[in-house]
Amino acid sequence: MIDHAHDLASVRAATERLLTAVAELDNASVTQSSRLPGWSRGHVLAHLARNADALVNVLQGRPMYVDATLRDADIERDAPRALHVQLADLRDSAARFQEAGAAPADWSRTVELRNGVTDSAARVPFRRWAEVELHHVDLGIGYELEDLPEEFVVREIDFLTERFGGHTDVPPTRLTDGTRAWRTGREADSAEVTVTGSGADLLGWLAGRRDGSPLAVDGGPLPALPPL
Questions:
Q1: Do 23 and 75 fall within a single domain?
Q2: Hey, which residues does 182 pair with through a beta bridge?
Q3: Rg of the chain over all Cα atoms, to the nearest angstrom
Q4: Which end of the chain is more exposed for a tag (fewer CB within 10 A), N or C?
Q5: Can you spell out the DSSP letters for 49-83?
Q6: Which has the closest alpha carbon to 170: 206, 210, 214?
Q7: Which ranges carry the MDMPI C-terminal domain (predicted)?
Q8: Do 105 and 169 fall within a single domain?
Q9: 104 lies in which domain range?
Q10: What digits encode the pLDDT tens for the residues 189-224?
Q11: Residue among 92, 90, 96, 89 at smallest CA distance from 59
């Protein structure tokens, strides 16, 4: 059972970590490249603010984005802003998301996200938590996958292995951090490939943040994962 109230509190804590870290930057740093190809740190910050507003739309029964073109245009528009403007927007949009999450609602209802994807309303706060944590890492300002809360790492691995589960281009794969194990890829009675590594390295590979080179692979090459 998903505890949306717990996840909303986790989003709040992750956002505070992000705001504190970003406040140490300067205007020049915001214009520098992030770890995401083609995006500056300003692009990442703008995306995070607009994503918060988009998830408010989801929780309130509106389309997440009017269309993909406007989504991208909004990010491009907001990316060059000065640091103090980025911070204020991040803080204000995060507050709007928390306010929407605090409103009485049927959290068992199904909501629609981008590209026709649907999910339980109760999982929206976790989706926002993932946005904040992973994009904090993407900024390249000292927050690494190893710094992520253990609960988040385990649950995001759960989420991503479920997402790739049944994917015909991914062989039946077992992942383990030495304590926990997950299955993903095509349906089969047994795994063809076993991938072993730390939680941070497994998550980095699944989320497209690392190439998987630190992982140990048995039974074949490291599977190529489809884009998220």
A1: yes
A2: 175
A3: 18
A4: N
A5: HHHHHHHHHHHTTS-S-S-HHHHHHHHHHHTT--H
A6: 206
A7: 147-227
A8: no
A9: 4-143
A10: 999 999 999 999 999 999 999 999 999 999 999 999
A11: 96
* CA-to-CA dists, residue 125 to 9, 109, 228, angstroms: 9, 14, 19
At 224, is the secondary structure helix, strand, or coil?
A: coil
How far out from the chain centre does Cα 128 lie? Answer: 7
Instruction: Report residue 194: phi and psi, to 5°.
Output: -115, 130
Read off the DSSP letter of residue 145. Answer: G
pLDDT band at 67 (very low <50, low <70, confident <90, very high): confident
Amino acid in the structure at residue 102: A
Dihedral sign from CA coordinates of 187, 190, 191, 194: positive
**Per-residue pLDDT tens digits for 42-55:** 999 999 999 999 99
Q: Is 137 exposed, middle or buried (0-12, 13-18, 19+ CB in 10 A)?
A: buried
Q: Please state, as a whole number, how many other Cβ atoms lie within 10 Å of the Cβ of residue 88.
A: 13
CA distances from 55 to 67, 72, 188, 205, 226 (A): 14, 16, 36, 26, 24
Residue with tokens 């790739």: 164
Whether 67 maps to a domain, the answer reads: yes
The answer on 213 and 130 residing in a single domain is: no
Task: Please give the Cα distance from 52 to 96 (Å, whole number).
Answer: 8
